[in-house]
Automatic annotation (TrEMBL):
Residues 25-100 form the Succinylglutamate desuccinylase/Aspartoacylase catalytic domain. Keywords: Hydrolase, Metal-binding, Zinc. This is Succinylglutamate desuccinylase/Aspartoacylase catalytic domain-containing protein. InterPro entries: AstE_AspA_cat, N-alpha-Ac-DABA_deacetylase.
């Protein structure tokens, strides 16, 4: 017996045998399910449990705090859906194919990678809200640089470094400062 059957739910997905065609309906977007983890900038539910909500769905009514959280979300939201598309931000130090797709449309925290040359004035990153609204565009300084480091955490807090640039050539005197963008 599967976990879904033990909890009284059917399978969470069926194999796609033909293309899906939907003529009307409602799209519900939930930018963050694991709010406690998001606020703490960690993948797991909380520091104490070290449990990943993705591994706990559909949760347990009388389980641990993360299991109860998953159960409540599953039973208040998921069971009412006809279709579910689950998109994840990559974990710290990882990249998802979704990130590559987002970069094509210039809607993600960095457009350059380590060792890329950056031209003066080039758009190198955007900072967005969890809803995709751009709150800041980061443009390269007025001299040639090279990317020496990029932030690996997809969640940036105010003041977080998103990219670290190194100066190319003899422009160091012009670029002197604390070296952070």
């Amino acid at each position: 017996m599967s976990e879904e059957e033990r909890n009284g739910h059917g399978p969470l997905h069926a194999p796609a045998s033909e293309p899906l065609h939907i003529e009307r309906g409602t799209v519900i977007g939930i930018p963050v399910v694991n709010v406690p983890g998001f606020l703490a900038s960690i993948r797991c539910f909380d520091e104490d449990s070290k449990q990943d909500l993705n591994r706990l769905m559909p949760g347990k009514k009388d389980g641990s705090a993360p299991q109860q959280y998953a159960y409540a979300f599953f039973n208040k939201v998921i069971v009412h859906l006809d279709y579910l598309i689950d998109l994840h931000t990559a974990s710290l130090g990882r990249r998802n194919s979704l990130l590559a797709t987002q970069c094509e449309f210039k809607s993600s925290e960095i457009f350059k990678d380590v060792a890329d040359i950056v031209q003066p004035g080039e758009l190198i990153a955007e900072v967005q809200t969890i809803f995709g609204d751009v709150v800041e565009r980061i443009v390269a300084p007025d001299f040639a640089t090279i990317v020496v480091g990029v932030e690996g955490n997809p969640v940036a807090k105010t003041g977080s470094r998103v990219i670290h640039l190194g100066v190319i050539g003899d422009t160091f005197e012009v670029a002197k400062g604390d070296g952070h963008l």
